[in-house]
Design goal:
It is a single chain. The chain is α/β, with parallel strands linked by helices. The chain has a single domain, classed as Alpha-Beta Complex (Spore Coat Polysaccharide Biosynthesis Protein SpsA, Chain A), CATH 3.90.550.10. 48% of the residues lie in helices and 16% in strands. The protein is built from 13 helices and eight strands. The chain has a five-stranded mixed beta sheet. The longest helix has 18 residues. The termini are far apart.
Length: 268
């Protein structure tokens, strides 16, 4: 079924919590792959912690950007559904894998992007956004990985990869959100990031947004490739309409303001 791909650094306790949440909620044995960085001062702690568990694998390699690490893990994975995770995710919903597979297995051409709710359903409804149009932790079928030649785009350092994949599927009518399956994203629910980490992430986000604005034509080319590979391709006009509306998305406008090049220069 699922291959869960998890780069981690400097947070063995959080990685263990993520691992245990997977093992305690899955109904079948899924593939769990961690990427550890060889220069991480916590490497020995990771290895010691992992030796006390089983049912997963880890790979030790050089320090790389997070998207590259995710792609390396995707190349090593063997299951059908490649799942982007991190060490700040806790899965709460028991049987999530069987429930997702029941729905996803009905898509015969295996072209889609799926995700779970990153806020509990009550919080999501209170935020007036119970049905997300983007997921920070996309589930991408192996066929999409093989068609595109990548799991997530390598042009970015940290951010935008979720935008790239989620919006690609949305404009094809193939974005599937499991609103009642809860993959808690601790960055959103606990606000755990320290100021130093937040600054690094915001700087990466500014650079990545700048890159995104200059790579949209390649994004559109990949959308068209997936569309041609679907059992029932949709009209180009529908894709054009979605792309035009995308720039008016409230979330998008906020990110464009927060991560503008001007603000990046002011802050960093």
């Amino acid at each position: 079924m699922f291959s869960l791909l998890i780069p981690t650094r400097g947070r063995p306790d959080m990685a263990e919590n993520t691992l245990l949440s997977i093992l305690n909620t899955q109904s079948t044995k899924n593939e769990i792959l961690f990427y550890l960085q060889e220069d991480d001062t916590s490497l020995n702690a990771y290895v010691s912690m992992f030796e006390s568990h089983n049912h997963f694998d880890f790979y030790i390699g050089p320090k790389l950007s997070t998207p590259i690490m995710w792609n390396i893990l995707a190349e090593k994975a063997s299951n059908d559904y490649l799942t982007l995770l991190a060490d700040d995710v806790i899965i709460h919903t028991k049987g999530w894998d069987v429930r997702m597979d029941k729905k996803l297995s009905t898509i015969t051409d295996n072209i889609f992007v799926a995700g779970a709710s990153e806020l509990d359903p009550i919080t999501a409804i209170n935020n007036d956004n119970p049905h997300w149009s983007i997921t920070c932790h996309p589930i991408i079928p192996r066929r999409v990985f093989e068609l595109l030649g990548y799991f997530i785009p390598l042009a970015f350092q940290h951010s935008i990869v979720d935008v790239w994949t989620s919006y690609m599927a949305t404009c094809l009518g193939r974005f599937i959100m499991f609103n009642t399956i809860y993959f808690e994203h601790l960055m959103k629910t606990k606000g755990y990031r320290q100021d130093s980490t937040r600054v690094i992430v915001e700087a990466a986000g500014s650079r990545d947004f700048y890159t995104w604005n200059r790579t949209k034509r390649w994004w559109r080319a990949d959308v068209d490739l997936l569309n041609r590979s679907m059992d029932a391709p949709i009209a180009d006009e529908r894709i054009d309409e979605y792309v035009q509306n995308m720039v008016g998305h409230k979330w998008w406008d906020q990110k464009r303001e927060n991560w503008s090049v001007k603000k990046y220069n002011e802050k960093f």
